[in-house]
Amino acid sequence: MPNQFSEQFKRFRTPLLVALIVSLGLGLGLGWKLKRDRAAQMGLVTSSQKIRVLALTGSIPPQILRGFRAAENIEVELVFEPTPDAVFARLEKDSTFDLVTLLSSQTSRATQNLKIQPFKASEIAGFENISRDFIDLPERLPTTVPFLWGLLGYVYNTETVDAIKTWSDVLELDHGTKIFFKPLEFEFVRLAKLNQPRPIAENALQDRVRRFNQTYKRTDRFLADPEIKEAEGDVVEVSFSEGTIPAYKDMDFILPKEGALLWILNLALSANSAHVEQAKAFVAYVLKPDVALEISRLNHEASTNKGVESSGLLPTQKPSSLRRVPLTLIDLQFNDLKN
Predict the structure, then answer these.
(1) How many whole angstroms separate alpha carbon 225 and alpha carbon 227?
(2) CA separation (Å) from 13 to 21, 22, 24, 231, 326?
(3) What is the DSSP string of 146-205?
(4) In this structure, are residues 234 and 63 in contact, taking their beta carbons and an 8 Å threshold?
(5) Is residue 135 a contact partner of residue 330, using CB atoms and an 8 Å limit?
(6) Which helix (H) or strand (E) holds 10?
(7) What CATH topology corresponds to 152-261?
(8) Who's near 59: CB < 8 A, 6+ residues apart?
(9) Going along 199-336, which residue ranges are E strands?
(10) Which end of the chain is more exposed for a tag (fewer CB within 10 A), N or C?
(11) pLDDT: is 236 or 199 the higher one?
């Protein structure tokens, strides 16, 4: 009997070992998957997949990256630059980014210089969430995906400054006035042209801008803390989307009657992106209505996403706000090569 048992054990030993190894493997695999899923839910996954995103400071709040990482298991390295011009300059020097945020006025040059490549709307999940008000504008869509927008105007302290109605009113303010601009030199030159009843010589325009810049201080921190409003200035350049946040409760917001600059910030796919599909996944995530809502709540900018219309955002942060602004007020210039 012992010999018979021994013979049977020898016969089934190898299949038993194989079955044991397979069972252990399956058990370990299932345990690893459960642990990984749990980590993903907590936003703790460290992934080998990674994309690099070059963005305008404040445009993409880092807080939204945890949800994207949990949903797609893709890490995002955000690199910020303080101005649109600085973003473009960085893109020209560094081709290793997968995505970049560009103003619509910068996309033509970026395309011609082979710094970005076209998106196809059919390849971007959630593209239908963008309001037609922005898709129908004369920009080379779907080269880029618009996600933020605004109109440049001013808030002013009604107790210390006479009523401002035009860009000339701003440019001719008393030198004792505390006035602050964001660092958008290119935009300011265009604004200075708007108030001219007739064409102005370029050298005269540049001299006017130079003298104005020597007189007034600039800032990009006005929105950082509503409590510093009084120390910041009497007149501040802001976006339409920011015009009714609590920091301005004692100030009036205006779009000068000669016109205002419409800016649209887009996500563009870098020409040398090494992770195209992962980059598209990030764009699709940004286009989710709940994510678009979170972005606008965090950075106080207006969304192009029609999914936020029924949300608790300020009216000026919703895409329908554009329809309430007379188009005659908008300086709609997209091709930067013509400016």
Answers:
(1) 5
(2) 12, 14, 16, 83, 84
(3) EEEEEEEEEEEETTTS----SHHHHHT--TTS-EEB-S-HHHHHHHHHHT-SS---HHHH
(4) no
(5) no
(6) helix 2-41
(7) D-Maltodextrin-Binding Protein; domain 2 (3.40.190)
(8) 101, 148, 265, 299, 301
(9) 235-239, 251-254, 260-270, 302-303, 330-331
(10) N
(11) 236
What is the homologous superfamily of the domain 50-150+263-338 according to CATH? Periplasmic binding protein-like II (3.40.190.10)
pLDDT digit string, tens, across residues 221-274: 444 444 544 445 667 667 777 755 555 666 777 777 766 778 899 999 999 999
Q: Where are the alpha helices (DSSP H) in 42-174?
A: 65-72, 84-93, 104-112, 132-135, 167-171
State the Cα–Cα distance between residues 164 and 172, nearest whole angstrom.
10
CB-CB contact of 167 with 181 (8 Å)? no
The pTM of the full predicted model, rounded to 2 decimals, is 0.72
Give the closest residue to 164 by CA, choosing from 86, 236, 228, 94: 236
Structure tokens belonging to residue 130: 């963008």
- The answer to whether the beta carbons of residues 259 and 151 sit under 8 Å apart is no
Counting other chains too, the contacts that 38-43 makes at CB distance below 8 Å and 24 or more residues apart are: 40/69, 40/70, 40/73, 41/70, 42/70, 43/67, 43/69, 43/70
Portions of the chain given CATH number 3.40.190.10: 50-150+263-338, 152-261
